[in-house]
Automatic annotation (TrEMBL):
GO molecular function, one term: translation elongation factor activity
Pfam families associated with the record: EFG_C, EFG_III, EFG_IV, GTP_EFTU
Matching InterPro entries: EFG_II (IPR041095), EFG_III/V (IPR035647), EFG_IV (IPR047872), EFG_V (IPR035649), EFG_V-like (IPR000640), P-loop_NTPase (IPR027417), Ribosomal_Su5_D2-typ_SF (IPR020568), Ribsml_uS5_D2-typ_fold_subgr (IPR014721)
Protein name: Elongation factor G
NCBIfam families (alphabetical): PRK12740.1-1, PRK12740.1-5
Domain Translation elongation factor EFG/EF2 intervals: 486-604
Organism annotation: Kineosphaera limosa NBRC 100340
Signal peptide: none
């Protein structure tokens, strides 16, 4: 719930004094508690909400004063079902604090989140939390992090834990100790007991930082024994972090907040401001290449809608990241939405649109609270109410020079669930509700399957599905229930069959008379339908031969024994009879359809075809065997495997029937201990095993 706040609104003086930082980490790592500590430390009177260990499902943002900079802190979900929200947060941010628990270490979920950051080259520092827990192992966690993520992971501070309490952090850069044993931070010089720590960690840290410095001679001078001052090291640290190849590690107690001061200084001094980060690509609304953005507050306005929500008090609310220009309230802007053009297909809730909109009030977020904001300059974030029909990933730009930002890569929703409205009233409200939910959540795909008549929600996983169902009920008062997902099959003929279609009817006046004889035979998969005319001697008048074909085609669409369309057959018309008065176009259409049904009635003449998908599964090497075995139990054909573009992972390819994939998103997560991801692409139709054909025909 968004509500007004009496806290003062942080206002950046220029883009260099903005830090947009995303908190990234797996569920249970202490990420959201870090968010609360940072907000509490910088905002007098702020009281963190009682979260009751609730799982984060969306972005939570707070604009804070952090030294001389404005810190836009973004808490992103860590659960795999909400990777779409994470990617939106990474687009809004310029760097990340990557949170790892000292009790859990590096698991598959942690590696997946790190890979998400690496995919967009997001600079990041590592925060090791839960050091007060009995099973905490900082050294082991550091070693596991370095093994998983490379030599660029190096500690800035080493924790000293006594009796399950983080009491000191040894600062390896400044050569001092942050002492928290008295409840408040006290800084003192290091003692002889800290010499082993410096001997082990200080040298590699400085070498790692200096290697990334812009001065190519600095490393050589340092190795030659020259003393390197703190100012030089700090400047080199900013360069190293901004390049995304160096990842400093800092310890933190989420129980007491010990270490927060170190993190705040790191963010202010060593995290990149917006001008140091690449700008997104922009296009004109006609699709031509747009100008290169430079992040100038005085430049043309270009902003992106990172997230939208429907608040019961504020109404339709949008979170924007401004990349160029300055956004102010009560000005007319252009809102463009062309998500379908970028992803290659129409997206429910994101139909292409271009409109002029007057900007409503601007606000600065503080968790669930909002503070009035006069303007948002390039690099800043702002919450905007009353921005028309703007949806997540839309672009806001100057009305006289509209542009479209290429959106971030949307995740592929792979868990399909068919839903059925509870009442007629729910049926009437469902389309509008789904359009609004999908507009705010591009990771949800809504399919209206015209063949099966089902509405199918494609979600990221069971928790995402539960959230969508809850929003339908709580926000739109729409009751729905899941139902069995129907997979569209196809009919085809097995072997060559001949049949006659006879339609003779006399009921006074003109009658109906048409007889046709056809031969039906199967074609190769994907060939479609072929009609051949071999009538001789005028047995079927020339004007009625197209009528026979039309009747056959109509029956193909309806199917013959299962209501599934029939495909991949050749129908040859070779004989028939006609009446000079009673034959007609309609009569021969009916005869053609009857002939096809008669041929299909022969025992064993018809079989069913099922859709096949090509599956590409990326999974940790330890689970490749289990994944292959599971694919075989799903009637899959393994095509092969190869190393993935991520160390320790492989890609397995297989062709698998769609009937076996409805729960694969859930099953793979369990089978691979969270390390597996997959894509699926339609390949074609193949003959279904006879046993399954019988089961489907019996089931109707």
């Amino acid at each position: 719930m968004a509500r007004a706040s009496s806290a003062q609104t942080p206002t950046p003086t220029d883009t260099d004094h903005i830090r947009n930082v995303v908190l990234v980490g797996p569920s249970g790592s202490g990420k959201t508690r870090l968010f609360d500590h940072l907000v509490s430390r910088t905002t007098p009177g702020y009281r963190p909400p009682n979260r009751d260990d609730q799982r984060t499902t969306g972005l939570e943002v707070a604009a804070l004063e952090c030294g001389d900079v404005v810190l836009n802190l973004i808490d992103a979900p860590g659960y795999p079902d909400f990777v779409g929200e994470l990617r939106a947060g990474l687009r809004a941010g310029d760097a990340a604090l990557f949170v790892i628990s000292a009790t859990d270490g590096v698991d598959a979920a942690t590696e997946a989140l790190w890979h998400e950051c690496a995919a967009v080259n997001q600079p990041r520092a590592v925060v090791v939390t839960k050091l007060d827990a009995p099973r905490a192992d900082y050294a082991g966690t550091l070693a596991a992090t370095q093994a998983a993520f490379g030599d660029g992971v190096l500690p800035l501070g080493i924790p000293v834990v006594r009796q399950s309490r983080l009491e000191e952090i040894v600062d390896l850069v400044l050569g001092e100790v942050h002492d928290y044993s008295g409840g408040q931070r006290a800084v003192r010089a290091t003692g002889p007991e800290h010499i082993p720590v410096f001997d082990e960690y200080h040298g590699p840290l400085l070498e790692g930082i200096i290697t990334e410095a812009e001065d190519d001679t600095l490393l050589e001078r340092y190795l030659g024994g020259e003393e390197v001052g703190f100012e030089i090291v700090e400047a080199a640290l900013l360069t190293a972090v901004a390049r995304g190849s160096f990842h400093p590690v800092v310890p933190l107690s989420v129980d007491t907040g010990a270490g927060i001061d170190v993190i705040m200084h790191l963010v202010e001094a060593a995290f990149p401001p917006p001008p140091m980060r690449p700008m997104p690509t922009v296009f004109t609304v006609a699709g031509a290449a747009g100008p290169q953005l430079v992040g100038d507050p005085g430049g043309p306005l270009v902003a992106e809608v990172v997230r939208t929500t429907n608040d019961p008090y504020a109404g339709h609310v949008a979170l924007l990241r401004v990349f160029s220009g300055t956004l102010t309230a009560d000005t007319v802007v252009h809102v463009s939405g062309h998500l379908g053009s970028f992803v290659g297909h129409e997206v429910e809730g994101h139909e292409d649109h271009d409109e002029q909109v007057r900007v409503g009030p601007l606000s600065s977020p503080l968790g669930s609270e909002l503070r009035p904001k006069d303007a948002a300059i390039a690099g800043d974030l702002a919450v905007v109410a009353k921005l028309g029909a703007a949806q997540t990933s839309d672009t806001v730009s100057d009305k006289d020079d509209p542009l479209v930002i290429e959106p971030w890569q949307m995740p592929q929703a792979l868990l399909p669930v068919a839903i059925q409205p509870a009442t007629r009233a729910d049926l009437d409200k469902l389309p509008g509700a789904l359009q609004r939910i999908a507009g705010a959540d591009p990771s949800l795909r809504v399919e209206h399957n015209g063949e099966t008549g089902q509405t199918v929600l494609w979600t990221m996983g069971p928790t995402h599905l539960d959230l969508v169902m809850a929003r339908l009920k709580e926000s739109f008062n729409v009751d729905v229930a899941p139902e069995d997902l129907r997979i569209p099959l196809r009919e085809t003929f097995v072997g060559r069959h001949t049949a006659q279609g006879r339609h003779v009817k006399q009921s006074g006046g003109h009658g109906q008379y048409a007889v046709c004889q056809i031969t039906v035979e199967p074609l190769e998969r994907g060939a479609g339908f072929e009609f051949v005319d071999k009538v001789v001697g005028g047995a079927v008048p020339r004007q009625f031969i197209p009528s026979v074909e039309k009747g056959v085609r109509a029956q193909l669409e309806k199917g013959t024994i299962s209501n599934y369309p029939m495909v991949d057959v050749r129908v040859t018309l070779h004989d028939g009879k006609a009446h000079s008065v009673d034959s007609s176009d309609a009569a021969f259409q009916t005869a053609g359809a009857l002939a096809l049904k008669e041929a299909a009635a022969t025992n064993g003449a018809i079989t069913l075809l099922e859709p096949i998908d090509v599956l590409e599964v990326k999974v940790a090497d330890d689970h490749v065997g289990a994944v292959m075995t599971d694919m075989q139990t799903r009637r899959g054909r393994i095509q092969g495997s190869e190393p993935a573009n991520q160390a320790g992972y492989s890609v397995v390819r297989a062709e698998v029937p769609q009937l076996e994939l409805s729960r694969y998103a859930i099953d793979l997560r369990s089978l691979s201990h969270g390390s597996g991801t997959f894509t699926r692409t339609f390949s074609g139709y193949e003959q279904m095993p006879h046993r399954l054909v019988e089961e489907h025909l019996v089931a109707g």
